[in-house]
């Protein structure tokens, strides 16, 4: 039995299956407020730091120019902030928040602390469909074709994982094995598509995009992510109480009036949509949905109202910092953002697996 299953069993033996609510309103809102200010500070630092460092006052002046445009020509520092660094930081924040919320939702619905879009194969499904759309030229037909293809791929892969999870009664090992198989199969499919691509530019674009990167982030990319991620995340937050009950057992959730089938299918579709919105603008960035919700759960407990809200803020901060490390660690050599998250996430996954094995003994 994995750690999460052990926690569930302990909670089911207690009179109140969920942890007590915070005693005061100040306690309930304190952590999100602190996290929000921390995120803003991290974003300001990330915009300030680069090959050309900018003073915080210069950054604030450039941001003020976006709010209140001036008739005079913008300075070079203003353009650096508004057209290069700010879209990259905003996109990192949106994608990090979305992937963290999707990971928290999958961990609740599969009752598995190792579930997240990358490990379960959902990100690979979105990637494979998006790569096919790029290589075949379908993505050039309209701006929304690439996000649509990514969503369809993510949704199909989510449906397959959900179906196999239902047949196997949600056993954690089965879900992980399905994810490994899906990632291997879809990786081979992507390689075959690229090997037969006729346009070398598409191959180069896709190859760099497969490991997740924010180097060429633009406001158009931000717009695509902003259309799908915040609204869907808010809808998922509205299902937090249902996730609390379903993380214990479907029977207990159903006994309180939760339509378990509808909530699960809707939430998984929404998680797939968030994943697709992230993948189609940044490529595959793994482990964010694994590391962040797990650490936040250790800090604030399993109640999903706080867990998802703080996971979104923490995920945004995590990916902003990861992207900052990617572009500054080996200057002038720039790493891909997905490479940095893998360096952090792979050891974290190993620690989770070892910790789970200790609980089995």
TrEMBL record:
Q: What is the lineage of its organism?
A: Bacteria, Bacillati, Actinomycetota, Actinomycetes, Micrococcales
Query: One short Pfam family name for this protein?
Result: FecCD
The molecule here is called Iron ABC transporter permease
Transmembrane parts of this sequence: 33-54, 89-110, 117-135, 141-163, 175-197, 217-239, 268-295, 307-326, 333-354
Q: Where in the cell is it found?
A: Cell membrane
Q: Which InterPro entries match?
A: ABC_BtuC-like (IPR037294), ABC_transptr_permease_BtuC (IPR000522)
Family (UniProt): Belongs to the binding-protein-dependent transport system permease family. FecCD subfamily.
Source organism of this protein record: Paramicrobacterium chengjingii
The keyword Transport belongs to this UniProt entry's keyword annotation? yes
């Amino acid at each position: 039995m994995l750690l999460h299953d052990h926690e569930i069993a302990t909670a089911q033996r207690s009179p109140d299956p969920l942890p007590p609510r915070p005693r005061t309103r100040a306690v309930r809102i304190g952590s999100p407020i602190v996290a929000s200010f921390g995120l803003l500070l991290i974003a300001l630092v990330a915009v300030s730091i680069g090959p050309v460092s900018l003073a915080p006052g210069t950054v604030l002046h450039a941001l003020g120019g976006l709010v209140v445009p001036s008739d005079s020509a913008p300075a070079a520092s203003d353009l650096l902030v508004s057209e290069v660094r700010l879209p990259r930081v905003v996109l990192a924040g949106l994608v990090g928040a979305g992937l963290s919320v999707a990971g928290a939702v999958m961990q609740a619905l599969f009752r598995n602390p190792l579930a997240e879009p990358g490990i379960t194969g959902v990100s690979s499904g979105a990637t494979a469909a998006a790569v096919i759309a790029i290589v075949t030229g379908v993505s050039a037909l309209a701006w929304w074709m690439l996000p649509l293809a990514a969503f369809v791929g993510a949704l199909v892969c989510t449906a397959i994982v959900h179906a196999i999870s239902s047949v196997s009664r949600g056993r954690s090992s089965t879900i992980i094995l399905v994810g490994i198989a899906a990632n291997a199969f879809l990786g081979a499919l992507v390689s075959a598509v690229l090997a037969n691509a006729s346009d070398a530019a598409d191959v180069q674009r896709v190859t760099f995009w497969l490991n997740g990167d924010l180097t060429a982030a633009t406001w158009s990319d931000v717009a695509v992510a902003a259309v799908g991620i915040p609204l869907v995340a808010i809808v998922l937050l509205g299902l937090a109480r249902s996730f609390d009950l379903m993380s214990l057992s479907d029977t207990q959730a159903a006994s309180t009036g939760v339509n378990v089938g509808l909530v699960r299918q809707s939430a998984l579709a929404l998680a797939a949509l968030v994943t697709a919105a992230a993948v189609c603008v940044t490529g595959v960035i793994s482990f964010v949905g694994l590391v962040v919700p797990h650490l936040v759960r250790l800090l604030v407990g399993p109640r999903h109202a706080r867990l998802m809200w703080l996971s979104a803020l923490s995920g945004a901060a995590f990916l902003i910092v990861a992207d900052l490390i990617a572009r500054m660690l080996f200057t002038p050599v720039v790493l891909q953002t997905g490479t940095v998250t893998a360096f952090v996430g792979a050891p974290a996954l190993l620690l989770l697996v070892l910790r789970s094995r200790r609980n089995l003994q």
